[in-house]
UniProtKB/TrEMBL annotation:
It holds the Pfam family Transket_pyr. GO terms for biological process: branched-chain amino acid catabolic process; response to nutrient. SUPFAM superfamilies: Thiamin diphosphate-binding fold (THDP-binding), TK C-terminal domain-like. Its cofactor is thiamine diphosphate. InterPro entries: THDP-binding, Transketo_C/PFOR_II, Transketolase-like_Pyr-bd, Transketolase_C. It comes from Pseudomonas arsenicoxydans. The keyword Kinase does not apply. Residues 19-194 form the Transketolase-like pyrimidine-binding domain. The keyword Transmembrane helix does not apply. This is 2-oxoisovalerate dehydrogenase subunit beta. The branched-chain alpha-keto dehydrogenase complex catalyzes the overall conversion of alpha-keto acids to acyl-CoA and CO(2). It contains multiple copies of three enzymatic components: branched-chain alpha-keto acid decarboxylase (E1), lipoamide acyltransferase (E2) and lipoamide dehydrogenase (E3). It comes from the Bacteria. Its EC number is 1.2.4.4. One of its GO terms (molecular function) is branched-chain 2-oxo acid dehydrogenase activity.
Length: 352
């Protein structure tokens, strides 16, 4: 069993600072820029402006325009340059301003970055990290709110990561930068400035009012491909990631059901061992994510659970997801899978 702080690699004992996820991500890039001269950070507005969400604020001033710099409005160009940098020894951290904008770079991600190691028989790799804000949280509508993780989890050669809290965000980003494979690093916008409280029917909390978490100031990693059990339980397993980790925890508390909540953290490769052990213990499974239902990553989780745990299941597997529709602007919270929907699913599996 992997608890939330298991398998953390700390370089030395260090002080901690209260950080939001944005600050934790910035700290990760700061640490790696200082630690490794081959690390470069670039993307639209990430240099002088510090990024639209201020994730890279101050880094160009500290490390100069050769290490932290702006890119043209060309996602295919950003990723193509990152692939070339990685192939020749650099470790680029490139930002796609919103995950919704990544589609023009699909060829560079899938045909180039993901296949470079295979195509070159290991002579070249693409050690690039592609950061992308994803999901709702800013009333951005259909072109600034998409959750597109399933597009990448089925691509051989890519790693896909989505943190749910500041501590994991920093540790996972450092681990991603150090990894020799291309990593799709998805950052839930709703969590950028503090842990989400799980309630879908409340207005967006002003960013200045969000709580934060204690994060080590220096170098540490959270291993890729390892899930975290954020809430132990014996009655039902909830598989989730990103923003809906908090939704799932609230739903379990409000229903009084002894649910075990697993934060996947790395969507692919997947920590199947932790999932299988939990479902075999509980006999029930609910899958929760913000992305659309049809062909969402939850469908793959359903397939894996029934393949490995079929004879242990006491009830059909439930999925709670976003609706199969473009993300609405004014009705963002009606789209978002909140605690009431998750709670209803928990009750259904417990009634069987």
């Amino acid at each position: 069993m992997n608890d939330h702080n298991n398998n953390i690699q700390l370089e030395t004992a260090m002080t901690t600072t209260t950080m939001t996820m944005i600050q934790a991500l910035r700290s990760a890039m700061d640490v790696m820029l200082e630690r490794d001269d081959n690390v470069v950070v670039f993307g639209q507005d990430v240099g002088y402006f510090g990024g639209v969400f201020r994730c890279t604020e101050g880094l160009q001033t500290k490390y100069g325009t050769s290490r932290v710099f702006d890119a043209p409005i060309s996602e295919s160009g950003i990723v193509g340059v990152a692939v070339g940098m990685g192939a020749y020894g650099l470790r680029p951290v490139a930002e796609i301003q919103f995950a919704d904008y990544v589609y023009p770079a699909s060829d560079q991600i899938i045909s180039e970055a993901a296949r470079l190691r295979y195509r070159s028989a290991g002579e070249f790799t693409a050690p690039m990290t592609l950061r992308m804000p994803c999901g709702g949280g800013i009333y951005g509508g259909q072109t600034h709110s998409q959750s597109i993780e399933a597009m990448f989890t089925q691509v051989c050669g890519l790693r896909t990561v989505m943190p749910s809290n500041p501590y994991d965000a920093k540790g996972l980003l450092i681990a991603s930068i150090e990894n020799d494979d291309p990593v799709i690093f998805l950052e839930p916008k709703r969590l950028y400035n503090g842990p989400f409280d799980g309630h879908h029917d409340r207005p967006v909390t002003p960013w200045s009012k969000h709580p934060a978490a204690q994060v080590p100031d220096g170098y540490y990693t959270v291993p890729l491909d390892v899930a975290a059990i954020t809430r132990p339980g014996k009655a039902v397993t909830i598989l989730t990631y990103g923003t809906t980790v908090y939704v799932s925890q609230v739903a379990a508390e409000e229903t009084g059901i002894d649910a075990e909540v697993i934060d996947l953290r790395s969507l692919w490769p997947l920590d199947l061992e932790t999932i299988v052990n939990s479902v075999k213990k509980t006999g029930r499974c609910v899958i929760v994510h913000e992305a659309t239902r049809t062909c969402g990553f939850g469908a793959e989780l359903v397939a894996l659970v029934q393949e490995h745990c079929f004879h242990y299941l006491e009830a059909p597997i439930e999925r709670v997801t976003g609706w199969d529709t473009p993300y609405p602007h004014a009705q963002e919270w009606a789209y978002f899978p909140g605690p009431s929907r998750v709670g209803a699913a928990l009750k259904r599996v417990m009634e069987v």
